[in-house]
Each structure stands twice: as structure tokens, then as C-alpha cells.
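Question thread 4412

I'm putting together a teaching handout and wanted feedback from people who do this every day. The idea is simple: show students a protein as raw sequence, then show them the C-alpha cells that encode its fold, then repeat with a second protein so they can compare. Below is the first pair exactly as I plan to print it.
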Amino acid sequence: MRTLSLTLLTLILSGCAAWLPRHDPAQAWVDLDAAQASQVQATEVDEQQLDDPRFFQVAPGSHRLGVRYLFEVGAHNIGRDAPALQRDCRLALEYAGFEAGERYRLAAGATGFRPWARLYGSDGRLLAQADERGCLRG
């Protein structure tokens, strides 16, 4: 019985990952990569809201990507006895060179209270950096 339960759980969890749509070779695909203990979400392309926050898929050319980044600021950045602070930030990234069929990686992280996001090409080269658009306490 235990083996059956574990098998079913594995199938269910692997099925969740399979629900990502197929990469359209006529578009560019942007994977999202967050630092540990944080979360990055795709929110909009060219000021149009997205339905799926797990990735960006855009036509070739120039685009403005909206990103939501949620992270925790640890006590070492606040004060020794302070509890951790949740931050919910919006960032915007512009890049003019998206190419059809290419896969990009948008990495996000934070330094203290300040979030950052960077776009990398498939070769690992830095292509663009995001601008912070505002943060709230989470």
C-alpha cells in the first residue's frame, strides 16, 4: 500500500511539471530562476497581464517584461533581534534582441532590501538588467 501511495504521489507531482506548454519555435522562451527561499513570477509583457506566472514566451524583437519577486530579508540585514521581513517587489526589464527559438534565463535575487533581476542568453552571457519598480512588505 505504501509503495502504491508513493507511486501515485510521484506521478501527480511529475504531472504538474508536464503542464508547461510546448515551446513555440517561432517565439523566444524565458525561464525564471529565483534565489533560494524566494519566488519569481512573470506578470506582464509589454504592459499586458500574463495568465501563467511560470515563464515568458515572446515574439522576436523588443519587449518589456514585468516581474514580481518575493523574498525574505534576514535578521543580519535588519538587526540582530529583529524577525525576518518579507518583501514583495515589482521589477521591469527591457530587452530589444529576443530571437525566435532561443531560450533565455531570467535570474532574480536580492542584496539586503534591494531586489535584482538579470536576463541571460542560452550561452550564459548577461543581456539585460531589470529596474526596480517598487516594493511592499509581504
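The second pair follows. I'd like the answer to focus on this one:
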Amino acid sequence: MFYRPEDGHGLPHTPFNAIVSPRPIGWISTRGADGSENLAPYSFFNAVAYTPPQVIFASTGAKPDRDGTKDSVANIRDTGVFCANVVSQALVEPMNQSSGPWPRDMDEFTMTGVTRAPCETIACSRVAEAPAALECRMTQIVTLEGENNFLVIGTVTGVHMDDRYIKNGRFDVLSYTPVSRLGYQDYSTVTELFQMKRPGE
């Protein structure tokens, strides 16, 4: 089949997220100017550069108490920093619980029962149970086409890795099974690897 997005697809559910999958999940922790903290997952998330290391995530939609955006973007606008926490299979339930449209004064660290740990290079908390976390300084917030669509770009200023998952000098993803987002209400975990060398390597 072929469809133009502006015309609709005629299917029971939109296939776009299923086509662009799997997608890593950035579990974004932020702190507001008033000291309140927020934790929310974003599946429009990825690494985009090596030197300096940079990540992006996109926020779509808005909450009525956040003036055209969501808590994460609003906090980052105020403070200029955020932390991207990696979601392991062991963290899927609290991650999903934190995705709700909670009021701005809801502390998802407390609500989900995950442990708050301090970041080293930014004034923000991270998820202590996360296998890895990237402390980031926001460099740009880009307004995307459409209503309430924002792309956040951050430079990584600090990297946390759980020592249990460093094996033979490598960060071993099979040890903690990272979770990815698919389409609809579907998720997946990384449970097997294969290797390929690029031509000339």
C-alpha cells in the first residue's frame, strides 16, 4: 500500500511508529527552576554525534499546565540541562508508569519508586538503577513543524555506567537487556547480537 500522511492510511492504527522501529528510549530526568524534578520516557531519542558526544530527543504534544509543551522541555528551557537514563528490562514498569500525563508537581522518582542519585556535572538527578546515564547540557531546542513538536539537542558532559555491565572492556548490553519502543503498544528487548565489519576494516 501507499498513503500520503495528510490523506490518512485507512488502517485501525497508525503504522508510522511501527515502521520506524526499534527506537531506543531516553528516560529523561530534569529539574525545574523551582527545584522540582521530573522523569519521563521519550522514544524519539538517539545519539547523533561522537565528538563531542551529542544526543537528541523530541517531545510531541502538550500539557495544559505547561504552556504548549511538556514538563521535560519546560524544565530544560529553564535550567539548560537534562539527563538521559537508559532503560533496562528491569525498569520497564517504572518507566511506563512515569509516562502518564501527570501534573507538573508530580515527582516521578517518588511515584515510581526508583532511586534518585545526583549527577556530577549538572544540577539534576539521575536514575540510580539505570545501567547507564548521560548527563547533558542543552545546546538547542528546535521548534519542529506541527503543533507542540520540539527537538532537544544536548551535549554529553558526563557518563555513568554500572560497573557490573562492563565486561572485557566493553559495555555489555546483553547483561542488562536494553528496552526499545516499537509501534502501537509494543516494546522489545535486545537479547542477541551479531557482528559485521565494514568494508576495508
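Top answer:
Good format. For the second protein you could add a caption like this: Residues 15-189 form a domain with the Pnp Oxidase; Chain A fold (CATH 2.30.110.10). The CA atoms of residues 60 and 155 lie 21 Å apart.
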